[in-house]
């Protein structure tokens, strides 16, 4: 081993360039998940570090340290998988979907579409599942009503990504605070500042746009099929809303995420036993392996066949792979060199947040993956937020406000490609109507320059309700 030396900017960029190339080949051409591309990129970063005099022990420490930062969130993901399984078998997710579909009205179709997709996505934690099931049905309903399909798709995307962003069961909602260095519920509470105004704005716009379609005749066959199927296969009762209400109360009371979510999962299991007459074996199987819906209705089965501890393993392995790469880059100083180059002209907190948001959007465009759009900028700017005395929740919010929200708007991004294939609408066509996704990053940038809801670390010490 030679004496470690500082790695210059041009060399530090090599692993990033290799990562972009590997992700493009893996995702766009080979149609594979990003795990192997990340492992190979970590290997390239390790080789460059070794050439510059860093020992393998030092490099491995960086990998382990990077992963260790997310162990709390990995534990939460495990519980979230269990909770999804028990909530579905217990009828909690079905009744949330049932009530969501009930609000459909011809006079407020676009606004109702936003609300329906929001409720379903909040309940499932998945924008893809929401778009692939209820979203597909709503596209058909919108066509029957004579509403332009891109407009309907925009409302579906807005609702689906509202739930994806705000649900504690969403993988990106768990990933962003893990990368930034804060906890899940603090992250969700802080996102309300940017997401709620954007949601209200989107709801108003959809309501205004939908007024001219109020006199149309709506074909609700698919929606009614879903409602009947849920009603025939589950005992639906308002008390089934108890678990989500319990979790919301725990969020408000600032109970730590693990016990709160574990309590929600346990309630789901109890409801499965008492209301759905499920055996202990079936409940444990749903918690471990997920719920398998066998209603015979494809839309319902696709929506409800999910959850379980094992369903989170792919996401957890992705986090480990991504943060192994990020850990090497950070430990050897390469991320610091890249971040320093990008931050040379950043003087104010608003500029820092804007740079973070633009970096996330850029990674969505270049790397074609929302996970990379959260992980890489998160690792790059984490120390800068800390140096400026800014709470980590400001970074985690910026990561989701941009990394999560803009991913379905890019046709070659994995999210944009999925939505295109599922809804049959090119992302460039529904982009102008995805009002929530467009508004959230802009509001986040505005807050950065005005200082509104930008909390400093010292504020969390003197004022616990801002933690």
Question: What's the SSE blueprint?
Answer:
Layout: H1 9-29, H2 35-51, H3 56-68, H4 71-89, H5 92-102, H6 109-124, H7 127-145, H8 149-166, H9 171-180, H10 184-210, H11 221-233, H12 242-252, H13 257-275, H14 280-289, H15 298-304, H16 313-331, H17 334-342, H18 349-366, H19 370-387, H20 392-404, H21 414-423, H22 427-430, H23 435-450, H24 457-462
Descriptors:
74% helix, globular, 467 residues, mainly alpha, single chain
Could you explain the architecture of this structure?
There is one protein chain. It is built from 24 helices and no strands. It is mostly helical. It has a domain of 241 residues. Helix 4 runs parallel beside helix 13. The longest helix has 27 residues.
Q: Nutshell version of this structure?
A:
By secondary structure, this protein is an all-alpha fold.
Got a strand count? Answer: 0
| Number of helices, counting only DSSP H or I runs of 4 residues or more | 24
How far apart the termini lie comes to 44 Å
Q: What is the global morphology?
A: globular
- pLDDT < 50 stretches: 460-467
Largest sheet: none
Measured on Cα atoms, how large is the radius of gyration? Answer: 22 Å
- Compressed to H and E, one letter per element, the order equals HHHHHHHHHHHHHHHHHHHHHHHH
The mean pLDDT is 86
Helix/strand class: mainly alpha
The share of residues in helices is over 70%
């Amino acid at each position: 081993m030679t004496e470690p030396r500082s790695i210059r900017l041009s060399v530090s960029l090599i692993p990033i360039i290799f990562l972009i190339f590997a992700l493009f080949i893996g995702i766009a051409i080979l149609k594979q998940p990003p795990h192997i591309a990340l492992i190979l990129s970590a290997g390239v970063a390790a080789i460059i570090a070794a050439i510059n005099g860093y020992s393998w022990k030092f490099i491995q420490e960086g990998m382990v340290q990077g992963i260790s930062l997310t162990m709390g969130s990995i534990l939460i993901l495990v519980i979230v998988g269990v909770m999804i399984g028990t909530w579905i078998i217990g009828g909690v997710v079905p009744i949330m979907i049932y009530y969501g579909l009930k609000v459909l009205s011809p006079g407020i179709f676009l606004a109702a579409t936003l609300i329906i997709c929001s409720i379903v996505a909040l309940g499932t934690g998945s924008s893809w599942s929401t778009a692939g099931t209820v979203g597909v049905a709503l596209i058909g309903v919108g066509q029957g009503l004579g509403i332009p399909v891109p407009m309907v798709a925009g409302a579906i995307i807005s609702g689906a990504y509202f739930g994806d962003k705000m649900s504690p069961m969403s993988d990106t909602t768990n990933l962003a605070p893990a990368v930034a260095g804060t906890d899940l519920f603090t992250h969700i509470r802080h996102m309300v500042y940017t997401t709620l105004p954007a949601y209200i704005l989107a709801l108003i716009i959809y309501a205004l746009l939908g007024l001219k379609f109020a006199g149309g005749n709506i074909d609700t066959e698919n929606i009614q099929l879903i409602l009947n199927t849920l009603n025939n296969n589950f005992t639906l009762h308002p008390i089934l809303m108890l678990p989500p209400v319990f979790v919301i109360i725990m969020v408000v009371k600032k109970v730590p995420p693990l016990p709160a979510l574990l309590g929600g999962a346990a309630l789901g299991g109890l409801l499965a036993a008492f209301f759905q007459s499920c055996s202990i074996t079936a409940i444990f199987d749903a918690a471990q392996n997920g719920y398998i819906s066998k209603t015979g209705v494809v839309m319902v089965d696709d929506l409800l066949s999910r959850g379980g501890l094992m369903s989170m393993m792919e996401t957890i392995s992705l986090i480990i792979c991504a943060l192994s790469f990020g850990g090497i880059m950070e430990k050897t100083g390469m991320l610091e060199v890249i971040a320093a180059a990008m931050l040379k002209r950043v003087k104010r907190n608003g500029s820092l947040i804007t740079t973070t948001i633009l970096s996330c959007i850029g990674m969505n465009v270049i790397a074609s993956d929302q996970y990379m759009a959260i992980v890489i900028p998160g690792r790059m700017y984490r120390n800068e937020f800390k140096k400026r005395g800014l709470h980590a929740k400001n970074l985690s919010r910026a990561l989701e406000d941009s990394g999560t929200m803009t991913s379905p708007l890019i046709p070659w991004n994995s999210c944009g490609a999925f939505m295109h294939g599922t809804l049959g609408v090119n992302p460039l066509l529904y982009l102008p109507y995805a009002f929530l996704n467009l508004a959230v990053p802009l509001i986040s940038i505005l807050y950065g320059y005005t200082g509104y809801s930008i909390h400093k670390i010292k504020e969390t010490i003197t004022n616990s309700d801002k933690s």
